[in-house]
Amino acid sequence: MSNARLAMRKPSLVAHVRKEWKLYSFLIIPIAYFVIFKYLPMLGNVIAFRKYRGGPNIFGTEWVGLRYFHMFLKDPTFWRAFNNTIFLSITYLVIRFPITLIFALLLNELRSMRVKKLVQTVSYLPHFISMVIVAGMIKEIVSLTGPINTLLGHLGIEKIQFISLPQWFPTIYITSGIWQGLGWGTILYLAAMTSINTELYEAASIDGASRFRKAWHVTIPGILPTIMTLLVLDIGGIMGSNFEKVLLLYNPLTYETADVISTYVYRMGIGGKEGVGGNFSFATAVGLFDGVIGLILVTLANFVSKKTTKTGLW
Amino acid sequence: MKVSASYRTFQGFNALVMLFVVIFTLYPFVYLVAQSFSSEAAIYAGKVTLFPVDFTANTYKLLLQKPEFYKYYSNTILYAVLGTVISVSLTAILAYPLSKEKLRLNKFFIPFVLFTMYFGGGLIPNYVLVAQMMHMRDTIWAIVIPGAISAFNVILVKTFFAGLPNEVDEAARVDGLGTYGIFARMTLPLSKPILATMILFSMVAIWNDWFSASLYLQSKEHWPVALYLRQIIDSAIGTNEFSSSDAAATQIAATIKSTAMILTSLPIICIYPFVQKYFVQGMLIGSVKG
Amino acid sequence: MNRFKKATGIMLAASMVFGLAACGSDNDKDTNGESSTTEKTSTETAGNTDATSNAEAVGYTFGEDTTFHSDEPVSYSMMFSDNEGYPYKADWRLWSAIKEKTNVSFDLTVTARTEYENQKTLLVNSGDAPFIIPKTYDESPFVAGGQIVPISDWVQYMPNYQKAVKDWGMEEDLKAKLKDDGKYYVLPGLWEVAGGGYSYIIRKDVFEKAGVDVKANEGNWTYEDFYDAMKKVKDYTGAKYVMSDRFKGESTLNIAAVEYGVTGGWGLSNGLVFDQDQKKFNFADTTEDFKNYVTYFNKLYSEGILDPESFTQEDDAALAKFYKGDTYVINGNYQNLADMVAKMQVPDADLYMIVQPGGPKGQLQIEASRLENGVMISQNALKKLGEEKFIQMLRFVDWLWYSDEGHTLSLWGVEGETYSKDADGNIKLNSDITFNGLNPTAEKKLNVDYGFGGGVFAYGGSAKLKLSKMSEGEKDYNDRILTLRQARKVAPPIMGSADDSEEMNLISKPLMDYVKTMTLKFITGQANIGTEWDSYVKQAEANGSTRYTDMANEIFEKTKSKLGY
Fold first, then answer.
1. What ipTM was estimated for this complex?
2. Whole-prediction pTM value?
3. Has domain A67-130+165-309 been given CATH number 1.10.3720.10?
4. A106 interfaces chain B, CB cutoff of 8 Å
5. Which domain holds residue C558?
6. Which CATH superfamily is domain B60-288 in?
7. Mean pLDDT lowest for which of C34-38, C257-261, C489-493?
8. Do C189 and C374 contact (CB within 8 A), yes or no?
9. Contact C389, C509 (CB under 8 A)
C-alpha cells in the first residue's frame, strides 16, 4: 500500500526497487520480525479498551471503553506507583548523569593507557552481570550480617534492616544503579571524545588554556551532541524504571517507596508471589498509559533539544 | 611540556578517584567470594568482610554434584548459542540495507525500526503474542526469538557498515561479486569488531535472562540457570535438597546463595576481558556518526 | 520527521485493518463456543442415563467402590506443582501405579511450586490451561474469564464425590464456593473432619523450667496469657528473643487473626469478616479489633519476645535459631514438628504443639472449613475431549481424588510394596520407609522416592484415613483442639456478577497490599499505632475499603435467599 502511494509521487520508485531488489530482499525477514514481534504487541494494547477473556480471542471479546482507565485512575496505589516511578527516575537521572559525565572526563585525563584500560575493564564489568545476581549481592551486602552492618556495628551504630525499610529503598536503588552503570555509561562519551579534532586541543594549548579550560571549552562542546542524545533518551525513560531490579528487591514493607508502575502492572496482571489471578486488560491499560506518557516525554525532550542545541534523536 | 604543580595535584586526585571506583566496583564480588568459602558461624557473626573465615568449599562441592545444576547450565548455554546466532544474523542483514544511502525506501524503514525504541506493546500484549499467537510457550523459541533484534543494536551495526570505505564495494563488484557475495565475503569480514560486540551483547543478555524464562517456561526441565539461581536466592530451594545431614544444612543455607551467584556469573567474568577490546572498538565506530 | 509521521501513519492504518479483521474472526469463534454450550445441556440427560445403565458401553469402568479403568489407554494434561522438598521424578511409583490401576497417564506441565501461581494465572487467563488444574486455593479470580468449567453442572457424573458430600454432610460447606450464577467452579478437597492446622511449636522443657505449666494452661489461655508465659521464658533464659517466626509471620498472623476477629497473614484475603448476628460483612482490618491485634504483636516485638527478623527472614534462618536453642517458640503444623524433632541440636529438647491461644473473640478453632484446596477443570478439556470423553475424565478425577481407593493410593502407595494392612484394615507403612514422622530413621522416603503422600494428590478423605497418617502426638493434638476450642461458622460467599467480581478484585488487591504493609509496620514499630492509626484508617478508606464492603453487602442482600440466610 505504501509502495503505491510513494510510487505516485515518484514514478521511478518501481524501477528503483526493481534495480535494488537484492538489497531490499535482505529486509524481508527482519521487517517481518518487526511487524510480528514489535508492532503486533502494540496493536495488542487494544485489550486495554476491550475485555480480555483468554482463549483464541487475543484482542478481547467486547469493547468496554475506558472502564479500566477509570478504575486505575481511581486507585491510590496506582498514583503511589506513578509518583515513585517519577521520583526514582528523576533522582537517579539527576545524580547519575553528572557523575557519569565527570567520570568520563576524568578517564579521558588519565595519561597511562594501561591504567585507563584497567579502570575501563573493571568498571564495565557490572553491566554484564545478571540482575538476579546484582539483586542477590545487594541483599547480602545490606543484610544484618553483611559488611555494611558490620561496619555500623564497629562504629557503635545500631544495625539497620535496610531491605525492609522504605526510607532506604531509593538509596539502595540509586547506589546500585551507579555501581552497575557508571563505567558503561561513559563508553559513548569516550567514543565521542576520540573523534574530537586534536587540532582544537593544540590551538587551546597555544592559547595557554589549562586542562580544566580545555575540558570546558573543547571537550564538552565536542561531545555535546552525545550528551544531548543521551539526555533525551533518559528523559524518555523517566516513566520506565528498572523493573527487574525493583521486582527482585522490593517487598510489602517497602512498597511505599519501591512500588513502580511496571511492578504494579506485573502484580495486577500476573500476580507475583501472592498469585491472585491477574487481570490482563487492566494491566494493559496501565501499561499503555505509561507507554504513551513515555512517548510524549521523549518527543518533547527531543523537540527542546533540537531547538536549543540542534541535536536530536530524529 | 611543563607540568604544573596544580596539574600534578589533579593527577593525584584523579588516581585516587580511579582507585575508589575500582574498589567500589570490585568489592561486592570479593565479598561474595569470601562469604561463599566461609563457615556459617563466621558469616552470622559478621566476621566475613574481605577474606574467607574458617575456609570451606563444601557448598561448591554439593552444588557441583547436583545433576540439575548441569541441566540448567547446559540449557543456558544452548539458549545463549542459538539465540546469539539468530540475533546477530538478523541484526546484520537488517542493518546492511539500512546502511545503504542509495536505498530510497530507507526513509520509511529506518523510522519504522527506530520507533520501537520509544514505544512498545507492554508486558501483557507481548506475553499474549509470544505465548498464544506464536505458540512459543514452554519452548526455546520464547527465549531466543522475541528479543532477537533491538533497534539500538541495529543502529550501531548500520553506522559501522556505513563507515566502511565505498571502494571496497566497487573493487568487489569488479571482481564479479554480486550483492550477496559482497555482503558475505567483504562486509562481514571487515566488521569483526561490531559483530563481536553484538555477539557479546546477545550472549550476555540471554545468559542473564530469568524473567522471560519465568514468564514463558512452565517446565522446570527447560529452566535456564539464571532462573534456578533466582529460586536459590529466594530460598525456594530447600537446603534439604542438597544434604540430609543436619549440621550441613545450616552451613549450606548460609553460603548457597553466594556460591550459586559466583558459579553462574563465572563464565561471563572470565570471557568478558578477552572480548573487551573488540566491543570497545565496535562501540567506538558504531556509535560515532560519520 | 514529516515523512516518518506519514510512514507510521500508513503502517498504523494498515495494522488497524488487520487488527479489526482479527477481532471479527475471534467474535465468530466466540459464538461458536456458545452454541456448543447449548448443545451440552441438551445431551446432558442422555449422557446421564447412558452412564448409569451400561458402564461397559462407554469403554471404562467406574462407580462407587469400583476402580476406574479405561479400556483404551488415555492421557490427560495436568498442571503439577513441583515441591522442592520432594522434586518431581518421572519414574515415581506413583505414576506407574495410577497407570496400572486405571490405564490413565498424565501429560504433565511440571512447574516449580514457587512459580505455580503465576503460571496458573498465565495459562488460565490466556486460555491454554491443561485439562486438570490441581492445588487451587482460590478459584474466584479465574471465574470471570470463562476458562473454567462450572463443575457443579457435572458432579452428577462423579459417584465418589457425591457419596462423600452426602455421607459427610458437605452441602453446607460447599455453599461457600458458590458464584453469582449459583454454580461452583472448583472440586475442593473434602475432609470428613476439619484439621488441626498450624499452631505454635514450643520447647515445653524450657517453658516448664521457667515455671509455666503448659498442659494445665493451654486449654484456656489467651494470647495475653501466652505473652505472660513467653515473658517468663525470656526472664528465665535471658534469651535475646523467645520466638523467631518462620513463614515470614504469615501463619502466626493468620491464626491469631481468627481469635481477634480480623484477617491477616495467609488468611488476609479481602479483609472482610462476616458478622453472624447482624448478617453482614464488616471490613475488619480497620476496626478496634485490628488495632488490638497489631498492638499485641507490637508488644511482643518491642519487648524482645519476637525476633525482629521474623517477618523478613527465610524459613531456614528461623529454623536454625530454633534448632540451636536460641529461640523457644516457632510456628508450624504437625508435619513440621515431626520433621523438626530429628533436627534439634539441643539434647533432650521436648517439642510440643500447643493448641492455638484464644483471644477477644473467644477460644475458636482455626480451621472452620472442611474444604481443602482443590481441582479446577479447564474448558479446554470439554472442548478437546468432547462431552463423553470429558465425563470419562471426570470419573477418573472422581476416582483418584475422592474414592477411598484413590485416597489410599495417593497417600500410602501400593499395598504390599509401601504399606500393609492389619486385620482391622488399619494401614501400616513399611518399616523401611519414612513419612510424616513415622519411622523417622528409615532410609527411604515415601514422598521423595515414591511420589506418594505429595500435596497435589494426597489430601482430603475420611476421618479414618486422616487418622491413619497421624502419630499418637498428632492425634492428641487434634483431640485437644476439638475438645478445647469451639468450632466457628464459615462466612457466606460473595456471589458477585462477573463485572462486580472483577471490580472488587481490582479494588481488593492494592487495598490488601496496603493493609499487609501497614500490619507489618505497626507490628515492627515502623509506624506508630498511637499517632498513625487514624491516617491508616483514612488511607484504607481512600483505597476503597468501604466501597468494597458495601459492594459485598449489596451482593449478599441480593443473594442471601439462595444461601439460606
1. 0.90
2. 0.85
3. yes
4. yes
5. 199-366+491-563
6. MetI-like (1.10.3720.10)
7. C34-38
8. yes
9. no
